[in-house]
């Protein structure tokens, strides 16, 4: 194998796939990047057996071939080496890099030992904007469970119909849903799947600099996301996502609206004084038009902050994990609506002017 590529193009491709390579694995080959120059394309591939990522790099191929290269060594080298252009060639099972800055040889592994990237039988295909997909995933991913005990909630639920896409995630203490309008299929068409949270995080990273469309291909037990620059294959989670619509509050006993910045400032100050449970208490007084946030820690002290704003409904005191509320506020812009279902019920947060996203937090008993 021998090819010539611009160093920056090669660097971008290596750094994209490197994070998907396996770490601390009993299969050393998973800690490598497969570099191939075949059929007119330079392809970099990494897999951890749950997801596989292929990135295409522009360059001139002089001799076809393949080799597996340790991901950590390769990414460190390409990030530090100087020069504008790199010539890569395989010699005696190793890969040689020649640039304006010098010559480097990295020990390689046999490409035949590298796991095959699944080639699925496509059942459904649709297209969604890359920036829109990344935003939707980012807005719900923080609500997903980080535990593998219940795989169906260690994932993001994605549902597509003719003119609407819905993304949702929950860890049973909070819930986030994002909807977006578009054209995803013919009238009456619908599809849904559960994408593991690790795959969600990898896909969001890959989409950071994508401004084009993503082609989504669904197969049996797996999904493929493809752009002009990369292809990502992920397994899907089996099982059913919780029927969360029945817990979404429709009516509220108490509600108010405040600016996002005011709420974040109050919560961050209160966060200095929270206890081990990270709990804060909202005391909401409609008669005095006052929203008060309280936090207390026997080892540190206590804090009370309040702000005046019009309030509808009953006076209540209710406690929440302040970190959960902060996570939800990051994905809301402008003035934020707070709706409390009851003195012991969930809190629903959303933008005053945008109903496409909501975030629900369950109260704490302290």
Description:
The chain is of the alpha+beta class and 366 residues long. It folds into three domains: 2-113, DNA Polymerase III, Chain A, domain 2 (Roll), CATH 3.10.150.10; 124-245, DNA Polymerase III, subunit A, domain 2 (DNA Polymerase III, Chain A, domain 2, Roll); 249-361, Roll (DNA Polymerase III, Chain A, domain 2). It is 17% helix and 44% strand. The strands form four sheets. Strands 14-11-12-13-26-25-24-18-22 form a nine-stranded antiparallel β-sheet. An eight-stranded antiparallel β-sheet has the order 6-2-3-4-17-16-15-10. Helix 3 (130-141) crosses helix 4. The protein is elongated and about 80 Å long. The mean pLDDT is 93.
Uncertain regions spanning at least 5 consecutive residues: none
Mean pLDDT level: 93
Number of helices: 6
The tally of beta strands, per DSSP, is: 26
Cα-based radius of gyration, to the nearest Å:
25 Å
User: What's the story with the biggest beta sheet?
Assistant: 9 strands, antiparallel
What is the top-level CATH class of the largest domain? Answer: Alpha Beta
| Number of structural units classed as domains | 3
**CATH homologous superfamily classification of the largest domain:** DNA Polymerase III, subunit A, domain 2
**CATH third-level topology of the largest domain:** DNA Polymerase III, Chain A, domain 2
Overall geometry comes to elongated
Q: What's the end-to-end separation, in Å?
A: 65 Å
CATH architecture of the largest domain: Roll
Which class of secondary structure composition applies to the elements? alpha+beta
Strand content: 35-45%
Portion of residues within helices: 10-25%
């Amino acid at each position: 194998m021998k090819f010539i590529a611009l160093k920056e193009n090669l660097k971008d491709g290596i750094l994209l796939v490197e994070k998907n390579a396996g770490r601390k694995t009993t299969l050393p080959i998973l800690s490598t990047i497969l570099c191939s120059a075949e059929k007119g394309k330079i392809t970099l591939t990494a897999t951890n057996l749950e997801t596989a990522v292929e990135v295409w790099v522009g360059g001139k191929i002089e001799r076809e071939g393949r080799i597996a290269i340790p991901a950590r060594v390769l990414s460190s080298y390409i990030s530090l080496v100087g020069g504008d252009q790199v010539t890569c060639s395989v010699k005696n099972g190793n890969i040689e890099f020649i640039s304006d800055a010098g010559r480097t040889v990295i020990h390689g592994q046999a490409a035949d030992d590298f796991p095959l990237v699944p080639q699925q039988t496509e059942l459904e295909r649709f297209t969604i904007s890359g920036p829109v997909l990344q935003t939707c995933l980012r807005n719900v991913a923080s609500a997903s469970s980080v535990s593998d005990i219940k795989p169906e909630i260690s994932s993001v639920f994605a549902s597509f119909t003719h003119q609407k896409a819905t993304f949702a995630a929950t860890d049973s203490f909070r819930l986030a849903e994002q909807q977006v309008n578009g054209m995803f299929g013919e009238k009456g068409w619908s599809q849904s799947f559960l994408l593991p949270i690790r795959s969600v995080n990898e896909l969001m990273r890959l989409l950071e600099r994508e401004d084009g469309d993503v082609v989504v291909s669904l197969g049996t037990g797996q999904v493929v996301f493809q752009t002009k620059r990369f292809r990502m294959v992920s397994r899907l989670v089996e099982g059913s996502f919780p029927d969360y619509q029945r817990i979404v509050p429709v009516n509220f006993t108490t509600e108010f609206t405040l600016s996002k910045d005011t709420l974040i400032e109050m919560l961050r100050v209160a966060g200095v004084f929270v206890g081990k449970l990270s709990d804060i208490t909202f005391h909401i007084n409609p008669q005095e038009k006052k929203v008060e946030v309280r936090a207390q820690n026997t080892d540190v002290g206590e804090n009370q902050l309040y702000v005046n704003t019009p309030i509808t409904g009953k006076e209540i005191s209710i406690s929440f994990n302040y970190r959960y509320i902060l996570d939800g506020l990051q994905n809301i812009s402008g003035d934020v609506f707070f709706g409390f279902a009851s003195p012991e019920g969930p809190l629903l947060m959303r933008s005053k002017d945008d109903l496409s996203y909501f975030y629900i937090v369950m109260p704490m008993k302290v």
